[in-house]
Amino acid sequence: MLTYNSLRQLRDTANLELKNKLAQREDVGIKEDGSFYLTDPYFAKQTRVALRNCGIIDPLAIDESIATGAYIALADLLENDVPGPQIVEDITRSGLRGRGGAGFSTGRKWAEALKYDVEQKYIICNGDEGDPGAYMDRSILEQDPHCILEGMAIGGLAIGANKGYIYVRAEYPIAVKNLKVAIEQAHEYGLLGDNILGSDFSFDIELRLGAGAFVCGEATALIESIEGHRGMPRYKKFRTAHKGLFQKPTVLNNVETFANVHMIMLNGVDWFRSIGTEESTGTKVFSVVGKVNLAGLVEVPMGTSLDEIIYDISGGIRDNKELKAVQTGGPSGGCIPAELISETHVDFESLEAIGSIMGSGGMVVMDEDDCMVDIARFFMEFTVEESCGKCTPCRIGNKRVLEMLERFVEGKGEEKDLKYLGDLCVVIRDTSLCGLGQAACNPVMSTMKYFRDEYLSHIVDHRCPAGICSALTAYEVEENCIGCGLCKVNCPVQCISGERKERHFIDQEICIRCGVCFEKCPVNAIALV
Amino acid sequence: MITFYINDHEVTVPEGTTILQAAREIGVEIPTLCHLDLHSHAMDISNENASCRVCMVEQEGRDKMLTACSVVAWDGLRVRTDTPKVIRTRKMMIELLLSDHPTDCLVCFKSGNCELQTLAQDNHIREIHYPGAHNVCEIDDSSFSIVRDMNKCILCKRCETVCNVIQTVGALTTVGRGFETVVGTLFDLPMNETTCTFCGQCVSVCPTGALRGVPRNAEVWDALADDSKTVVVQTAPAVRVALGEAFGMEPGTDVTGKMVTALRSMGFDYVYDTNFAADVTIVEEANEFVHRFTEGGVMPILTSCCPSWVKFIEHNFGDMLDIPSSCKSPHEMFGSLAKTYLAERIGKDPKDIVVVSVMPCLAKKYESERPELSNEGHSDVDLVITTRELSYMIKETSQDFAGLEDSDFDDFMGESSGAGSIFGSSGGVLEATLRTAYEILTDEVLEKLDFTTLRGLEGIKEASVEINGTEVNVATASGLGNARELLERVRNGDKQYHVIEIMACPGGCIDGGGQPFFDEGSDILEKRMNAIYEIDKNKPIRQSHKNPSVIKLYEDFLGEPYGEKAQELLHTSFVLRPKA
Description:
The structure holds two protein chains of two kinds. By secondary structure, chain A is an alpha/beta fold.
C-alpha cells in the first residue's frame, strides 16, 4: 500500500527508469519539461493531451503510468483535504466540456450531482464508443487506462461518490483486459478501494461490458444496461446528475473527458485554458478516416481549422483528388462541403453553426468520387440498424428516410419526395426521444442543404454525378475500341458482344455495372456515362 | 405550486405535474397513445413510456417540442397545443404509425374500440405520405386464450408494464432492434410455452388489435345450430354488471334479467348461473377449510377459483402447491355437474351436452382445456366466451338489448345466494367462505354477514375474525404482483394466515381480461363492484350453504360435502411448471 510520500518517490524512480527505457527508442523524444512525445511529424504536429501516453508507456505497468504523473493529482487533493466543491469549481473554471458528443459543461454536470446530499452517488465512464471507424476512446482505454481510473476517482472525490462503473464495449477485448489489469494494480497499490492512500476517501471501479448496441452510448440507455435492463433510452423526468443509475445522483462522462480531468488536475486550470478557444477549451481527438493520405487519430487544440487537420497533419487528399466534403461527429454528424472547409474550425459552436456536430470526434473525408446521396443513405442505414426501436420517429421515421434515399439512388425518386424528406427529417429531429434519433438525419439534412444538385441529378436526371450509384450508371464501348475481346472474356454476366477487331457492344439490360470491363480495357475505350 | 401557460391560459398546479395532467385540468385535450394512467384499473401505476411522441406540444420562444405526457411543467413555462408545427408533427407521427400498420380496420376485431383508429379519425388522416415496408410478424395463436398479432403493435409497451410491473409475470418483453423491434416473449417462445398466466390484462390495455382473446363465439353459434346437441350456458358473476356497457347502458347496471332473456332467445337449451356453482364451491371450500383447520392440516388455504392465479403459483411457487384448495373453479364445477347431475336428470348422454361458459376472463378459455378438468373423457366445459364475445353475439341477433324484458335463470342449477354473486369482486370469495365456514365451525348463526373490510379495490386487504375463540387471519390480494407479495409473506412466515383469496386481475373478475373495454380515468370498476354488492344485498338468501338448490344437489346426488363423490367431481390437482 502506497502513502502520499511513497507514491511520489515511486513517481521519481519510475520516471528515471522510464527515461532510460525510452532513450532506447528512436520514435520517442523528451521535451524540455521532461515529458515524452512521439517524434514522427504526424504526431509532432499535434497537441497530444488525452493521448499523451499512447504509444509511449506500457499500459500493463502501473509504474510507468505513475512515472508520467498518474495518481499524483489525486494524492495532492487528498493530502491537502481539498473539498469537493473546490474540485468542481476548478473543473468548471477549466471550461472542460463533455467529449462524448453534446459538449455539456463537465463542471456544471458535477455541480448538479454535488448538490444532492445522499449517501450513494455514482461515477460512470462511457466507453461504449460506437461510431464506425472511431477509436479515440479505445486508444486511451487500451494504452493509458490509469489516467481514466484517476479521472474517475477525482470525480468521485468531487461529488461524493464511492463507486464507479466503466461501461466498455465487449468488442474492445484489449481495452477490457488492460482495464482489468489496471484496476487490479491500482488496488494493490491502494490507489483504488477503501481508504485510498490512507485517507478516508474510498472509491471502487467495476467494469461493465456492452453487448454491441450503438444506442447504449446514450447516457440513459447505458444506465438501463448497467442496471440489467434492455439498453433503451429513458425519458428524463430528472437529470442523470439528480436521479441516474439506480435512481441515485450520477455523473456520466466520456473516456476522453476523464483523461482531460486527470490532466487538468495535474497541470492546472490555467494551463488547460491556454489551449483551445475561449468557449471550447483544451484539445479534441479526431479519428480522421476516408480519402486522406494519413488516416489516424489526430489530437489538436479546439478551434484548429479543418484545413490544418486535413492537409497539414493528415497529408491531404489521396491521389490528388478534389476534396468534396468532410463529415464530422460520427454517423449522425453533418457533411461540410469543401467550400466551407477552410473557414471551419473544430469547436462546438462553429460545427453546430454549419449544421454538423462535434460528436465524439469522428471525421470522414470525402473526395470527388463520393456520391453524397449514397453517403447519406449509408449513414441512415447505420442509424436505422442501431435504433433501439422505442420511439416512433426513430423507429419508423428513420426507416422511411432510408427507404426514400434507397429509391433516390435507384433513380426511383420523385421531386416532391424532396419536400417530404425534408419535412420528415425536421420532425424526426424535433420529436425523437434521445440523441440518436434527434441527430440521425443530420447527414441527410446537411447533404440536402449543401449538395441539393446531386439529389436533383439522381431524381430528375436519373444520373449519379460521382458514378457511384450503380443503378444510375452505364458503361458503354466507345469508338476507339480495338476489338481485343478482353472485356467480353472478363464480363461475369456475358453481356458484351462483338466480333474480333470490331467495336464491341454492351447489353444494358443484362449489365450489372460491376465495372470489370472498364478496368480491363487496354485502350480506355469503355466509358462510364 | 407553480404557474404556467397553455395556449395563453394560466394554469396553477402542484409541482411535479406534467403538462398533460395540467392540460386535462383545464379541459385541453392533448391526444395521447402510449400513455395510460392505470389508476383507474385499480393499479397504482402509469405507463410512462413517452415513446409514441403523439402528445408533443410546442414550447413558446424556444421552438422546442415537448412530450406533454412526460415533461413536468415548470414555473413560467409557456406551451402551445395549437400551432401548425404541433399539428403537422402529430399528424406525421400518426401517419408513421399507420405506415407500419395493417389498415384492415374494417375486419379488425378492435374496430370501434381501437385508440389508433380513433386518433387517426380525430386528426383527419386521409393519406399516408410515407408508405414503406412493414415489420411483418408471424401471428402467435398458440395459446387457448390470447392471440398476439404484433403486426398491429405500436410499441406503446402498456402490455409490458402490466405484465412485468403490475402482474410480475414477465411473459412479455421488447425484443429485436430498430424497425424490427417487437414486444415478444422469452426466446421468442409461443405463448403457450411461456409463463403467461393468460390473465388478459395486456389485452385490456392494448390500444390496438395487437393482443386479443381467442374467439370462440362462432363455435357457439355452430353448437346452437346443431340439433343433436343440448347446449347449456352459464354466466359468471361479473358478466352481468358489465355487459350493459357494450350496449351503451350506464356502467354498473345489473342486466341479469335481460342477459337471460337474450341467451334464451339465442337458442340455448338451458340458461344457468355460475353463481349457483359458486355456492357449491363455497360449500366445498368451507368444508375443506374446516377439515384442514380442525385436523391440523396445512394453513393457510388459498382459493383456487382463478385459473390465472393457479397457473401463476404453479410457475412461481412450486414449493407451495399443497396450500391451495383442491376445489375446481365454479364454472368447472358447473360443467362437471352439468355432464353428470344434469345429464342424469334430463336423460342425455354427456357427449351430447355442450357446456358454454360466459366469463369476464380470458384465462378460463385456457383453463377449460386443462386435461385434469374432465370426467370420463368429457371436458367439463366445452366452450368459453367472454363478456365481449357475448355482446357481439347479442348484437348479431339484432335485439334491442336495453329494451329486453327481464327473465329468470332456469330452475335446478340457476338459483344462487348473495354469497355466490360476490365472487366477481376482489374479496368476495373470502367473504362468502367466512359466511359459511363460521356457521359450520361454531354451529351458530352468523348475525353480521357483511365483511366490509374485505371489500374495495385495494391490492391487499386483511382482516381477523374470531371463530370459537381462535383468531382467524384472512387476507385477499388482487393483481398478481400483490399476490406475489402476499405469498412471499406466507413463505417467509411473517404472519400466520388461515384463508387467503387471490384474484389475478386487479379488483377481481370485474376487471377481467374479457370484460368490455373502458377508457382510462373512469370509475367504471367501482361501479361494477358496487353493482355486485347490490345484487348480494337484495338476495333473500345470502349464504351458500342455505341455497335450496345446493342443498338438494347434495341430498339427491353428491352426498356429503367434501365427501367421496364431491371430491371426484368437484376437486382437482395442480401441476408443477417451470419458472421461465
